[in-house]
Amino acid sequence: MVSAERPSSNAVANIDPEVAANKVPSVPRPIGFAAVALAVLSFSISSALIKWSASTGSVVAFWRMIGAVGGWWLVVVFNRQRSGRPWPSRETWKLVLPPGLFFGANIAIFFTAITRTSIAHAEFITTLTPLVLLPAGAFFFGERPNWGALKFGLISIVGISLVLSFGPDGGEATLGGDLLMIVVIGTWTSYMLTSKRARSRGVDVIDFMACMMPLGLLTAGPIAASIAGDGLFSLSARGWFVVAVLTVVTGMLAHACIIFAQRQLPVATISIIQSGQPALAVFWGFIILGESVRAPQIIGMVLVVLGLSLFTRASQKPIRQPSRQPDLTRATAAPGALGANAPTDDQPSR
Predict the structure, then answer these.
(1) Is the pLDDT of residue 22 over 70?
(2) Half-sphere exposure for 218 (CA within 13 Å, toward CB)
(3) Distance CA 192, CA 141 (A)
(4) Angle (CA) 302 303 304, round 5°
(5) pTM over 0.85
(6) How deeply is 332 buried, as exposed, middle or buried, from its count of CB atoms within 10 A (0-12, 13-18, 19+)?
(7) pLDDT at position 49, please?
(8) Which of the chain's ends, N or C, has fewer CB atoms near its CB within 10 Å?
(9) Integer angstrom CA distances of residue 55 from 118, 156, 214, 238
């Protein structure tokens, strides 16, 4: 569970009062949806680019993270020179350590899995993530989801079954790659939960990303070295090009949008909105790689997107709370009081 205790005002640099109060707006803000939509567009093209690079996925992940480290620390230095912004504090590094480790493992495993299975399998397996995040967000952060929306998840599960069962004969999907994507779900869920904890304790976007990227190398580096060995330093020209593109598009832009959106939307909603990402990724796979899909898979993809869209809509409906009756015994007038109808702090909130 997340401790209710908050750091003192000087414990974490650049405290955001709303974030530090661990509050998500009661009405989701449009800018939050826009940020997640931009992240989805950026993430969707990354799978096709990774496979197009014809390189070891974990190696591309390793160098992409190094590029992102340089990019985010340039942002930190620029802001420090312009406004005197302090360096990330020791408390910030401690808070960002868990999400950083989970993120490094997630990206290294995902980049590996995407080269061992089809984009359709990889992307649609990860659509199971909201079913994990929904109860997790409620348990760890007190979010109040509409549990009735879960019934729409069954539609998506049927769709995923079609996607996985009707792949083209001789396609690129493998059981090993699909199983790696299950691990990806676990590491991404852990990243989302621990990153929200850091944000709720007052770590802003720039400090979070600047600390998270180098900390992620602590897990991404060993995974890449164990898979690639001496190949860690031998990328082709195409591989380096993909590293450069992904550094900017996903290493900075997309993840910054996700972290920013955590101030605006519940953690489960962020993941649910990403329901359009798999379909876009399959589209890019067809355009860039020529990966084909069969008619039953297309039906399955439609069911997945439909189920998650209905889930999203249902989860946004306000939950009707039972009305509280005032305790009349507290309204008894004391000597010298204004009377029985005097307002008190114990009246139910409206």
Answers:
(1) no
(2) 12
(3) 12
(4) 90
(5) no
(6) exposed
(7) 92
(8) C
(9) 16, 32, 22, 9
Crossing angle between the packed helical segments 295-315 and 129-141, to the nearest 10 degrees: 20
- Residues of the chain with pLDDT > 90, as a percent, come to 19
- Written in H, E and C, the secondary structure of the chain is CCCCCCCCCCCCCCCCHHHHCCCCCCCCCHHHHHHHHHHHHHHHHHHHHHHHCCCCHHHHHHHHHHHHHHHHHHHHHHHHHHHCCCCCCHHHHHHHHHHHHHHHHHHHHHHHHCCCCCHHHHHHHHHHHHHHHHHHHHHHHCCCCCHHHHHHHHHHHHHHHHHHHCCCCCCCCCHHHHHHHHHHHHHHHHHHHHHHHHHHCCCCHHHHHHHHHHHHHHHHHHHHHHHHHHHHHCCCHHHHHHHHHHHHHHHHHHHHHHHHHCCCCCHHHHHHHCCHHHHHHHHHHHHHHCCCCCHHHHHHHHHHHHHHHHHHHHHCCCCCCCCCCCCHHHHCCCCCCCCCCCCCCCCCCC
Give CA–CA dist 194/99, Å, rounded. 5
Q: 166 is written with which tokens? A: 């009707």
Identify the band that residue 5 occupies on the pLDDT scale cut at 50, 70 and 90.
very low
How long a stretch of residues is the chain?
350
